[in-house]
């Protein structure tokens, strides 16, 4: 067993968490947990830095890596990972009781090797290590153990520093990784290792190839029906070579590619990629003032498959550079546009200012970046047969001149002037009644997930709708990674503190009315004749109502709106001179709200001094008797108007309320008589209207409580009575 620690020793234990399940209806957190749409899971070990590294749809398992000497690896069933009951297995690769901070094993790579084994790598306390794990043949096999005696070097597969991101994928037993391969993180490369082939990498210490890169995503995408044309695309951000100029961005987003069958050069670029090319990704928006906001820091990439495996959609998440101005955006790119850029002109530094210009000289044959034995080079069987001119050209010109622009040349989603940034992105394709839609789930650095749908507004532009934003962790923490399972309709979100499973839809929160369900414009939900419920394309019921594209309840719900729940008039009490809040939250975030005030049969728009309007209702400041009346909250969306809330406000006299509450607190009322004559009891003084209002308030409050809350209230009252009785008895005993 080799020595695996360069700090004070490494305890790199491999702990496997299998969920051997029992039914459990426990829910956690606050608002989201009330609808049973999420289940958080926190490991009982003192660990952190959870990352979802692999989701196995076939076996129904989720694999996580984390930082800790006791717990660095987890496997859970999708459906039961969040139930009680677990079997724990622990494997020690080496031992030291003094592991501190970064001198631990951070698991950064988990890839399927075959049907029964996984290949996993960790930082190994700044000396990366890898091993195989036997996970069993079937999902029912609760088998998870290390292959005895096998520990491999992780150099070129996993970064030394846990703060350095890396991206990797196993293809035909060859591991392709974008990774830093030295202790000081000064040497970054795109590597190919394993598989019995000679290791190959990008050119070393050449800033024209890679300049302090941060690797985000790496994936194989075929270019044609010819297998020799298959390429590996990798997405990263790097420091700009022109950042000293001031006007140029300091960080650039990139897409690069290499041929899978690249074997390196014969004389030049030996054991180096001879097909490496890269291009810039542009994601920017021009505001109404004409100022361009650029999103240059690539944060996450989600590649959405389509029916044509050669043309997936590339969704990229960007943020603005720097910490002063916070902004985020999502841009989507087509593979056709990316390939056109790689087939276009090369960039070349030329002139007295040494600026990037288009290379206009002769392009050698075969064209740099072309795969050997492919469609355009059938006679060249290996990259070692490339001409010296072609190899030397690509060594000096790895950058394409034109950048890649997003579809419609603008972002799908933009957030500026907000106090948060997006950190993670996944996309789901949803079939609705009126078509197929892309739903984006966007994690933020404040621990929330936004559910966003983008709809066609006209032939040249799109419209963004935020369906909801939910907090997914019990303790606020930035979202690190997300994986989506369309098959199980679940989203899995990780942070430093743990993992949460979130349902992709919460149709019940839209209510029972057809109009509310239609206005929500949620492609996961449709009105089934009785309530808003999950929609499946196979449903044949004619009463299913859904309109994602237009959200028009006047057309979809004609004759059905009356079947919704009749709006109840709620009674709310306020005390004269104080403030009160009238709540109103339309179920659709796109609705506009207007408040009407009704008094003595007259209804008018509420627009007076002393009323503060918020997204959740209105605040009435310094109440007086003229504020008493009926308040209507009217929501309007797509020309459809409906009343969301109807509140009857009653105003209580301040002096009476103070007197009543003061008398309850008096232990010796006689000592409070200020004058020479005894004061009459307040209750003996006839105030029938006010007393009736207070009794009505207490009764309405009690009726609004659920049976469970009423039971809790009764238990608390009984407890107070018992406590008071014990206190009285102890006083009597003391007097005795």
Describe the structure.
Helix content is 12%, strand content 36%. It is mainly beta and 736 residues long. The strands form 13 sheets. Strands 7, 8, 9, 10 and 11 form a five-stranded antiparallel sheet that branches. Strands 36-43-42-38-39 form a five-stranded mixed sheet. The longest helix has 29 residues. The radius of gyration is 33 Å and the shape is elongated. The N and C termini lie far apart (79 Å). It is found in: Secreted. This is Sema domain, immunoglobulin domain (Ig), short basic domain, secreted, (semaphorin) 3Ga. Belongs to the semaphorin family.
Topology (SSEs and partners):
Elements (H helix, E strand, L loop, with lengths): L12 E6 L12 H4 L3 E4 L6 E9 L4 E7 L5 E5 L9 E6 L14 E6 L4 E6 L6 E6 L10 E2 L5 E2 L13 E5 L2 E7 L7 E6 L20 E8 L9 E9 L11 E9 L17 E4 L3 E3 L5 E3 L2 E8 L8 E7 L7 E8 H8 L4 E4 L4 E4 L29 H9 L16 E4 L5 E11 L2 E10 L3 E11 L2 E11 L9 E5 L4 E5 L4 E5 L10 H7 L4 E3 L4 E3 L18 H4 L12 E7 L4 E4 L8 E8 L2 E4 L5 E4 L2 E4 L8 E9 L2 E13 L1 H12 L22 H17 L2 H29 L1
Parallel strand pairs: 36-43
Antiparallel strand pairs: 1-6, 2-33, 3-4, 4-5, 7-8, 8-9, 9-10, 9-11, 12-13, 13-14, 15-16, 16-17, 17-18, 19-20, 21-22, 22-23, 23-26, 24-25, 27-28, 28-29, 29-30, 31-32, 32-33, 34-35, 37-41, 38-39, 38-42, 40-41, 42-43
């Amino acid at each position: 067993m080799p020595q695996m620690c360069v700090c004070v020793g490494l305890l790199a234990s491999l702990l496997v968490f299998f969920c051997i399940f029992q039914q459990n209806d426990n829910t956690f957190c606050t608002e989201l947990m009330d609808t049973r749409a999420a289940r958080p899971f926190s490991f009982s070990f003192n660990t952190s830095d959870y990352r979802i590294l692999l989701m196995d749809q076939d076996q129904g398992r989720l694999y996580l890596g984390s930082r800790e000497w006791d717990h660095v690896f987890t496997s859970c069933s999708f459906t039961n990972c969040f139930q009680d009951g677990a079997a724990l297995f622990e494997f020690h690769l080496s031992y030291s009781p003094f592991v501190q901070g970064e001198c631990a094993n951070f698991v950064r790579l988990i890839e399927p090797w075959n049907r029964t084994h996984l290949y996993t790598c960790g930082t190994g306390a700044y000396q990366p290590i890898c091993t195989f794990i036997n996970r069993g043949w079937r999902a029912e096999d609760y088998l998870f153990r290390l292959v005895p005696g096998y520990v491999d070097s992780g150099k070129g597969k996993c970064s030394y520093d846990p703060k350095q991101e890396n991206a990797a994928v196993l293809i035909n037993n060859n591991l392709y990784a974008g990774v830093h391969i030295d202790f000081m993180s000064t040497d970054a490369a795109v590597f190919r290792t394993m598989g019995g082939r000679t290791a190959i990498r990008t050119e070393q210490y050449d800033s024209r190839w890679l300049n302090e890169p941060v690797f985000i995503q790496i994936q194989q995408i075929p270019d044609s029906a010819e297998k020799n044309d298959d390429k590996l695309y990798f997405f990263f951000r790097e420091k700009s070579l022109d950042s000293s100029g001031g006007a140029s961005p300091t960080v650039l987003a990139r897409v690069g590619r290499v041929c899978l069958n690249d074997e390196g050069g014969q004389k030049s670029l030996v054991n180096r990629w001879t097909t490496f090319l890269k291009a810039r990704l542009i994601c920017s928006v021009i505001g109404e003032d004409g100022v361009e906001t650029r999103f240059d820091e690539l944060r996450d990439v989600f590649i959405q498959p389509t029916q044509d495996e050669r043309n997936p959609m590339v969704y990229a998440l960007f943020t603005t550079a720097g910490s002063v101005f916070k902004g985020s955006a999502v841009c989507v790119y087509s593979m056709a546009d990316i390939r056109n850029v790689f087939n276009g002109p090369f960039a070349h530094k030329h002139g007295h200012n040494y600026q990037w210009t288009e290379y206009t000289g002769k392009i050698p044959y075969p064209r740099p970046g072309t795969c050997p034995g492919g469609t355009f080079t059938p006679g060249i069987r290996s990259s070692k047969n490339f001409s010296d001119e072609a190899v030397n050209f690509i060594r000096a010109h790895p950058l394409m001149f034109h950048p890649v622009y997003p579809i419609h040349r603008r972002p799908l989603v933009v957030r500026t002037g907000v106090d948060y940034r997006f950190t993670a992105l996944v996309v789901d394709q949803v079939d609705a009644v009126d078509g197929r839609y892309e739903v984006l789930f966007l994690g933020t650095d404040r621990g929330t997930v936004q559910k966003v749908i983008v709809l066609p507004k006209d032939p040249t532009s799109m419209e963004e709708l935020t369906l909801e934003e939910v907090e997914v962790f019990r303790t606020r923490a930035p979202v690190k990674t997300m994986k989506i399972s369309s098959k199980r309709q679940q989203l899995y979100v990780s942070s430093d503190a743990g993992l949460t499973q979130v349902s992709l839809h919460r149709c019940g929160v839209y209510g029972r009315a057809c109009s509310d369900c239609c206005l929500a414009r949620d492609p996961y939900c449709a009105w089934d004749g009785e309530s808003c419920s999950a929609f499946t394309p196979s449903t044949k019921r004619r009463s299913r109502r859904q309109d994602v594209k237009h959200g028009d309840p006047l057309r979809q719900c004609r004759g059905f709106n009356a079947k919704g729940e009749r709006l109840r008039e709620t009674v709310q009490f306020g005390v004269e001179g104080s403030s009160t809040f009238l709540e109103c939250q339309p179920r659709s975030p796109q609705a506009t709200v207007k408040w009407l005030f009704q008094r003595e049969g007259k209804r008018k728009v509420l627009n007076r001094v002393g009323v503060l309007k918020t997204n959740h209702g209105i605040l009435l400041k310094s109440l007086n008797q003229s504020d008493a009346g009926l308040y209507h909250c009217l929501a309007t969306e797509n020309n459809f108007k409906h009343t969301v809330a109807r509140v009857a406000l009653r105003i209580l006299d301040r002096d009476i309320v103070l007197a009543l509450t003061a008398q309850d607190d008096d232990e010796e009322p006689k000592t409070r008589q200020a004058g020479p004559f005894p004061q009459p009891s307040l209750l003996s003084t006839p105030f029938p209207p006010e007393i009736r209002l207070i009794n009505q308030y207490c009764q309405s409050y009690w009726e609004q409580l659920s049976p469970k809350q009423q039971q809790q209230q009764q238990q608390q009252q009984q407890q107070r009575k018992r406590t008071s009785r014990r206190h009285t008895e102890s006083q009597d005993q003391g007097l005795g």
